[in-house]
Design a protein that fits this description.
The chain is α+β, with helices and mostly antiparallel strands and 230 residues long. The protein is 28% helix and 31% strand. The chain has helices at residues 2-7, 52-56, 58-74, 139-143, 149-170, 172-181, and strands at 15-18, 40-46, 80-83, 87-90, 93-105, 108-118, 189-194, 197-206, 212-216, 219-223, 227-229. Helix 3 (58-74) crosses helix 5 (149-170), helix 3 (58-74) crosses helix 6 (172-181) and helix 5 crosses helix 6.
């Protein structure tokens, strides 16, 4: 993502930046993202139209593209799901994550960086996870599928282009419907943690802005940002 940010002012269209080796990976809230050799780390540079809220919904577009690409390579017996907002799970473990960062200008979002990390070859050590976090898994040990990062990028770039066109032509509504069809733990009790605030309830879906809808003892609430635990 650092290299993508450096290149962004000079690119005129959607551009993927692939890291064959990443030594300073990061996840949400500045957390470390461990990246063993053979895993996938890439960032897409976009110039989105619309405001910052519309750009943020690319989180769900990217999750659907990543799900589709993984479904193509993992085989029909792989159990894939999307954990809100955009982690992709395989057989119940975390296989992939997405991180969005924006580069602003006076008019709004100049460039959107969509970082994608996938455990293709090996899962990182689970010892550093916080309590309750989903344990990591890797594609090769779980399914027997072995791919290089370059090979996987061919699948992901094509899938992203399809879902991007859907979003830009028809808006967020069909993206929301498709995302809900692939959502992990929909209709079940989950926990959402935002800083020191912890709320548990039934996961009822996402709203038109992508916020998590949770039915709690106090009624339905919409949560714009949180860490989700099962």
């Amino acid at each position: 993502m650092l290299e993508a940010a450096r290149l962004a002012p000079a690119v005129s269209g959607p551009t993927w930046v692939l890291a064959r080796r990443q030594t300073a990976g990061r996840g949400r809230r500045g957390r470390d993202w461990r990246d063993p050799p053979g895993n996938f780390a890439a960032t897409l540079i976009l110039r989105p139209s619309g405001d910052a809220a519309a750009a943020a919904l690319y989180s769900f577009v990217a999750a659907l593209a990543l799900y589709e690409a993984l479904a193509q390579v993992a085989g029909p017996r792989a159990r894939l799901a999307i954990k809100w907002p955009n982690d992709v799970l395989l057989n119940g473990g975390k296989l992939a994550g997405i991180l969005l960062e924006s580069l602003g200008e006076a008019r709004g979002v100049a460039h959107l960086l969509i970082g994608v990390g996938v455990n293709l070859a090996a899962a990182p050590d689970a010892g550093a996870l916080e309590p309750g976090a989903v344990a990591p898994v890797a594609l090769a040990p779980e399914t027997g599928t072995q791919l290089t990062p370059e090979e996987f990028l061919d699948y992901l770039a094509a899938a992203f282009a399809r879902w991007q066109a859907q979003y830009e032509n028809f808006g967020f509504a069909p993206i929301r419907t498709a995302w809900l069809a692939r959502a992990a733990r929909l209709g079940q009790v989950i926990t959402a943690r935002t800083g020191a605030l912890v709320r548990s309830g039934t996961f009822e879906g996402i709203d038109a802005q992508g916020a998590l809808l949770l039915h709690t003892s106090e009624g339905r609430i919409a949560i714009a940002a949180a860490e989700v635990f099962f």
